[in-house]
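Dear colleague,

Following up on Tuesday's group meeting, I ran the structure prediction for the two-component complex that the binding team flagged. I've pasted the input sequences exactly as they went in, so you can double-check that nothing got truncated or mislabelled along the way. The structure tokens for the whole assembly follow below. Feel free to forward this to whoever is handling the docking comparison.

Inputs:
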Amino acid sequence: MNVSDATFDLLEAEFNAPSVRNPSAALPNRQWAEDAAAKQRAGVPPFPPGVVAARPAFDTKKMRELLDMNNFELRDSLYELFKNPVFVPRYNETLDEERARTIQRWRLIAKTGVFHEALRIFTVKGRQRYEATLESVGAIDHSLDIKMGVHYGLFGGTVSLMGDDDQGARWMPKIESCEMLGCFSMTELGHGSNVKGIQTTAVYDIPSRTFVVNTPCEEAQKYWIGGAFQSARWTALFAQLYVKGVCHGVHPFLVRIRNEDGTPVKGVTMGDCGAKSGLNGVDNGRIWFSNLHVPLDHLLRRHSQVSVDGNFTCNFKSSDERFGASLASLSGGRVSVAAGSLIQAKLGLTIAIRYGLSRKAFGPPGEEETRLMDYPGYQTRLIPPLATTFVMQLVLNHLKSKWQRRELGRELHVWSSGFKALISWHALSTLQETREACGGQGYKAENRIAPLKSTHDVALTYEGDNHILLQTVTKAVLPEFVRGFKNDGNFEGHFSYLNDREALRRVDLSTTDPRSAMYALTVMRRREAALFARLAAEIQKKIAAGMSSLQAFNHSAVLVEDAGRAHVDLLMLQLFHQTLSDLKSRGETELVNILTLCGALHTARLIDSQVIFLRNGALSAKDAQNVHSNVQIFCMQLRPHVLHLVDSFGYPPHLLAPIAFDYVSHNSRSRL
Amino acid sequence: MNVSDATFDLLEAEFNAPSVRNPSAALPNRQWAEDAAAKQRAGVPPFPPGVVAARPAFDTKKMRELLDMNNFELRDSLYELFKNPVFVPRYNETLDEERARTIQRWRLIAKTGVFHEALRIFTVKGRQRYEATLESVGAIDHSLDIKMGVHYGLFGGTVSLMGDDDQGARWMPKIESCEMLGCFSMTELGHGSNVKGIQTTAVYDIPSRTFVVNTPCEEAQKYWIGGAFQSARWTALFAQLYVKGVCHGVHPFLVRIRNEDGTPVKGVTMGDCGAKSGLNGVDNGRIWFSNLHVPLDHLLRRHSQVSVDGNFTCNFKSSDERFGASLASLSGGRVSVAAGSLIQAKLGLTIAIRYGLSRKAFGPPGEEETRLMDYPGYQTRLIPPLATTFVMQLVLNHLKSKWQRRELGRELHVWSSGFKALISWHALSTLQETREACGGQGYKAENRIAPLKSTHDVALTYEGDNHILLQTVTKAVLPEFVRGFKNDGNFEGHFSYLNDREALRRVDLSTTDPRSAMYALTVMRRREAALFARLAAEIQKKIAAGMSSLQAFNHSAVLVEDAGRAHVDLLMLQLFHQTLSDLKSRGETELVNILTLCGALHTARLIDSQVIFLRNGALSAKDAQNVHSNVQIFCMQLRPHVLHLVDSFGYPPHLLAPIAFDYVSHNSRSRL
């Protein structure tokens, strides 16, 4: 098993919430989940009440495997573990209770041995197992997967990626076993997105062969550090490295912040970040350093080294390059955030769509009331986000594979930034729509959607503010566009579609199949090309008028973001249609058919919801009217499949909510 | 004072959360608020750190009075009362604690005597005082104003509006003094928006001269009833009235549900609705009735009467008319919801804009970092919702006046439905934007924005689901359009602008001042006219194809909502420009100038964010490009005024949050 029981014994004693010790205390009524499970055991699918089962038009098991990619049995076994009363969601708890429960749950996950050697042995399989674990946990308790992700992924990931092989061999086993429990100290009160500007200093002191770490001002206190308030004994500290009076920029160190008994080490002060909108199982904290001495060999030295007598060496030519490499673990963070966002969206959709299938309201006078899902207006609220969720999951799977294969280049940076931004905003709007679609029941904690929404919200700004991430995308891609432009309009790579601009212009959308790749890519490319051309011109104009290139960029912020979004939308549709053609070549006709419809609805809705396509002439007002009609047509075409589509997300009943099943019985007087 | 101490003594004993008894227990650090108050006392405005005070371009006191309308001293005195430790916001509490604290706070508000005769004497002034009180309370604790609003407004309002004069005289004094504490039992588990379909029955029993009330099935349990789980002794019950075997539809009754000691009366069972996303200070509950006998004279008989021997009489010709009249108190509910939404939006904007003025991030290499509010991209995120908030507040003020004057007609219904929908969605997007704009600090509970957001969310679906409310608007307005259409294109009332269609078509937007009423009304009218014409045609076509008119309406749901939204957007801009010309005629040039800019930005942003204007030809792609540029231009023009604009909302420091002031000091180690 190789899990440090000592660590968890200590933590459970420190996280002092006696009410958590007894996992059955005040357990909410879960009869609805037991009823559904009993049906399943009897071979009856637990459809929402009154729903007649139609034969699915596609193999839901195959679809689930396409979405989840790997480790299906592991995922199912974790879902099974979540039947343990310790994992039952609770919604009326104090910070102390939530934090204690998170520790208690972590122990149970760790005890399964799933993390053993998962981080040390850098195989694709190891990473897949690790990510499948965090994703499964994310479906029951997002605080818990974040708490574990901070320790294994951010802290452990920094040690393994930034430390050299010796350092990895020395510390990683203890990190996997939780003997060394850590956090990730990058952001400060004064510096969140602008990580380069952090102010904590680590000054190499030759006589003592240590780095002296200090918090020079209040804005330099480490802030939002998950695990820092209570559980972490160690941290991966990012600080400005000074050697012989020269600043070499931000570097990572492995630093002890607490003794094993939980008391802070001398020179370190910790504080609480307090209650948040969600994720309250994570004890985010603040850290101040005062002349803390860190041994020389605790500089994580894969990229930079300091010799005993104070010589600084670095594997990279420029400080920017080195800094870029040291942020690789953040790309992984964004992949996880995007994956987490989709999990919350899938749960919200499953719950809301099942409710919409059974809940009735209004109807013809004297007749039975109509099911919500049979109202076209209701369909246009929930089915488009469902379609987009399928598209985005398949797109994200490309990014996950890239990350698992450790392709750490520029593409990973652009994809992870762009996908994290658009996917987390998609989850936000989806959870909001599902919450409203369920009316008051959507506002009730036990139905999960509202708490999922509050908890998910942080995804929009952590691991990079979404707006800034989109700007990052444009910053990375614009030079490529400008290069082609300057090269007499001969474009390479992504923009090579512009080498035949006439062909792009010639496509007649009114006669092109709106479900085809041709249609989607044409509209997206027209928009992207128009925006990048305008942006390049605007920046040039502003520079000619005397602005610095930074000012010119900042003063074009709206256009910069629009261009970034256009690029990411296009990338996504390229990757999605690539998946479709892979499936086609494998003869998966059923999957291709249903996913083509999802892609068509996603595309139509995207075009229909943004003025920018029309404003930039990517399509005509007449085309726009067709697109608008298509949204409703595709919704109607997907309507018969919605139950099987959400079922293929693979979440068992006990991860869902009462309104996804027989909510009337659940609310009956006899269950008071 | 005339407040029933006995009631509150009992309630405080019943709401059992000992931690609440001591209001200073675990009080959060409020030094930031005290520092700001000390500055104010010294005559120094507590601007965000580093902000240099410019002379405001308008009188902020006059602006505040324009926004708040009346009872300025009362509002300020309540804000002063909120300095009492009992009112300090707390964010780490259980349901029991939140509920207990709400009772404790209610008592303090009631003790001020502000509700004395506020409901009984139906003067405009009385209603204004009542509403000013609830609005002020809404700025510190939304649970509390809802809790009080349910008792005084929904319960008391039903007794006073639906009861006859004798009934009012008999019960209203006890309701005002809280001697009779009540709730409002309309919605059921199975029927929320579709109130007509509720299933609770009240059958008149001649021998006993009582109505026998029953919950005939589980879906008929009263659900979401604020106050029903714990505090209410009485309820305004809505049930299907049966007399001599004939169902006369939904009628209101005054019904006792608990004895004075808090135990349920025989025949009544109550249950908890449990934890919600917010508003947890309100003990929403469920109620079942079993052969409960209600005295004959407890039928609220302003509109319908039943005689001792079972003769039913009604002041209205049709059951629909009577039902419409009995829903008048719901119009008032929607006015309050809209007002509450704007309060949350104003708080969020004040906090976020002040933070954006002091928070720095990134900047030119080697120079000081730039304040967020000086990034054009950041301005386009926060300044448009600020402008819209001013517009919507002034528009809502027209509706509030109408409601206070008791103009209970069709216009009240349409305005309250439409404004509630668009204003609550506006608050949703504003709170979301402010939360993201503040990064992690926006996710932190003590900074208020995230909890305001969670709490506000219910506004989107209670007192009518927003989508259904927009459909309601269209349903009410479409016949007027069709009438004009059938009358050879001679329109009356609202649509009379269509009598000169050529003039509407002729306006050249490219040469019209985009800040003018002409510009705004032209674009909005073109859209409205196009949508209503299309809707009328589509419904006609569907009916011709064999659908019932209900089916035709439902199958045009997207168009129906679009038309409703177009109507409400137009109404709002008409009312806003009416306010502007009133101000102009009063010589308020400064206010007119700044508000004209707010209106211009609101209009430009509205057009720029919805495809529908372009798709329906309300403006050309070239005009759309101008509008898009104008959004940024107007933002830049408003930028110098943002601090004074949020200051004119009139919220004192202790209602705001640490990040609105010196958040670095607030987070300093010395304040741990």
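The longest strand of chain B covers residues 246-256.

Cheers,
M.
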